[in-house]
Amino acid sequence: MAKPALVAALALVLANGAASPAPAAERPPVVTAVRVENLGGGPMDQAFIKAHISVRPGKPLDQAAISKDLRQLLATGRFSKVKIVSQPAGDGVCVVYRVKNKLKLGEPLHIVGARHFREEKIRDWIDLKPGDLVDDQIIGTRVQKVLREYREDSYPDAAITWTITEKDPALGVATVTLRVTEGQRARIRAVTFSGNTVFPAGELRKTLKPPPWWNVFRWFSRDRYERDAVEEARAEIRALYLDRGYLDVEVDQPQVGTDQAGRVYVRYNIHEGPAYRLGRIQLQGVTLFPETEVRKVIKVKTGDVAGRAAIQEAANAVQDFYGSRGYVESSVRPVLHPDPNSGRVDVDFVITEGRLVYIRNIIIRGNARTRDKVIRREILVAPGEIFNEVKVRQSERILSNLGFFSSVRSTPLTTELEDHRDLVFEVEEKQTGQFMVGGGFSSVDRITGFVELTQGNFDLFGWPYFTGGGQKLKLSSQFGSRRKQYGISFVEPWFLNRKLSLGVDLDRTEIKYSDYRIERTGGGVTLGKALPGPNRISLGYRLEKARTHGLADTNLYYYTDGSGDEYRFQEEDRTKSTLTLTWTHDTRNRPFLPTRGNLTRVFGSVSGGPLGFDTDIYNVGFNCVQYFPLWFQHVLSLRTRWEVVDAYGNTEEVPLSDRLFVGGGRTIRGYDYREVGPKVVPVDPRAASRRYRPVGGRSLAMAKADYSIPLVTPLRLAAFFDIGNVWRDVYDFDLSNLASSAGVGLRFDIPGFPIAIDRAWPVHKDSDLTDEDAWVFWIGFEY
Fold first, then answer.
1. Which residue among 52, 76, 101 closes a domain?
2. Same domain, residue pair 582 and 667
3. Do 175 and 191 fall within a single domain?
4. Domain range for residue 227?
5. What's the maximum distance between 2 C-alpha atoms anywhere in the chain?
6. In 3D, which of 198, 163, 193 has the Cα closest to residue 179?
7. How many CB atoms lie within 10 A of CB 233?
8. What tens digit of pLDDT does each residue of 220-272 get?
9. Where are the beta strands (DSSP E) in 141-272?
10. Pair 73, 97: CB distance under 8 Å
């Protein structure tokens, strides 16, 4: 392989060539001329170079400017070598920029020695085409992807060298030849252990991160061998023992053998040593606070297992005790005194307390788009306060979770005041806008398409780019054979400069059911406030116009519950003015595709009455989902939903568009959409287009259980059971008559575009009239 090229060299040669510095009082020489020289092949664009340098004739020689020019020229990506020298010229110096162009690739890459992968595939991974600039650094970076592909396909010894041959110096054109040495394919046949009594071999093998035994894709492949992974497993095995209190454990270098077929056998020899428990625990160096106060943060005690992680966690807790009180230069070092004879280890926490430090200024760097105000309002500390390290770390996490930055780092800077530091938050911004166009199919909406534009860092008054204000904007449109939906939503998370969110929504929905159509047009305003812990409360007002039309018929129907009550479908044109109060409790580990935690919503709403307009109803509900992480990355989720709606005042019955329905989709799978619950049948079957119609109810109860196991990223296999019903009367939960179903499905956990495919079988019907629908296909997240 060609030696890596010298990327850059900087040599400043003074007039007499001496290396000794000029006296401090001597003025720097004046630049009398600037010249560009070509060190390699290809034409030299002097105008391009001079446009990227700051040194000019007539100005004093400035070493800082020369260093900046060097970086500027290298940053253009057009040169493989840049050297800047100064030469005597008259009464001053001439600054010479000697540059070497990167060569241009004249023809497709030549590849020699590749057998396992096709040459065309390797060229795609390298992604260099005729006309692209090439040098050793560029090719060295590109071949890493090829090597990763070889290693992932069990060629751990694969190597690639290359040669760059200058073909036409005048034009700066070259050819590149890659020589691939694939080596022998190697897969792990067996991993064995000796000396292990504490952990079974199966537990230790997990450190090599093999595919789960229940993953059907593993049946068609073997574990690949990676030298680094085998060595990393050795460190993880030792960490397992240290965390169990085996502080003298030793794990020998893994013994790796290969047979003629390329099968690899790995063996780890383990020397466990004795298991230790904690003996005496002492604090050294505590002078600023009562020792009893410091001891309260240490959770380990005498007699506990002397696990390394537990001991370090105790040291971190002591460090945070001081850091949260402004002693930022404090340090805590656990010193262990093991006694193999007694199996006890005494621990001394050696504390260096440091000095109390205050925050002088908070400096924000790196935010080209995001306004300072948006960042500062999320920071939990302020100038003049003590330098609380714990709150500073929490501030870092909060800023990272905003989704505006790819990285957030905080650094204390010393000042002329010994007890004050400047706190610097260095952020690196990332793209916060997203535009998505797509289509799909669901068992409810049939063929659908959607267009969505989101900006997570929107600024309503930030002309002309409208970014950097920390607001959220979403424009969406969904259209299909059954549903059309258009919406715009805006959220200001700091309304009136308080931790109070303001949301504004405008939307229009048109849904075509089998017997009628519903059109909704409305808008709303919501105020939200975070409460202590993972809790939030919100108050929203919505004004909506709902129209029900396109009825299949208006004939007389009877309820099927035996009451003899009559029912007629009627066109409706109502306006609803609604106030809703919602409490949310959210402890999920992530908002999309969670594996642990709880999400609970309790809400109550009232429409009409003192709020005006012509729909007087109220609605009360409860939704809860709990995620349980189990063995082998299995996840169990349990959902329940209870809800009632009723009319009051001048509204005699709940309008059809506000009734409760279940069945199909994301409610009770295995049944037609919205068909579980109260139904009516025509008095004269000959005059009606259907033998029955679902009309919804005023009370709803439902529960769901989903059990999923991962197969291969991003695919999971799921099994489920759904049960529930809707009842005609309010607060009438007749649990003796519930519809239920069970089934299996696949989950494609594609970020931003998850897909669920389920096959369901009814277990018990609520009514013989309820139609079945075996397949459920859905796109999107379920909350």
1. 101
2. yes
3. no
4. 187-271
5. 114
6. 163
7. 22
8. 455 677 778 888 999 999 999 999 999 999 999 999 888 877 788 999 999 99
9. 159-168, 173-181, 187-194, 223-224, 250-251, 255-258, 263-271
10. yes
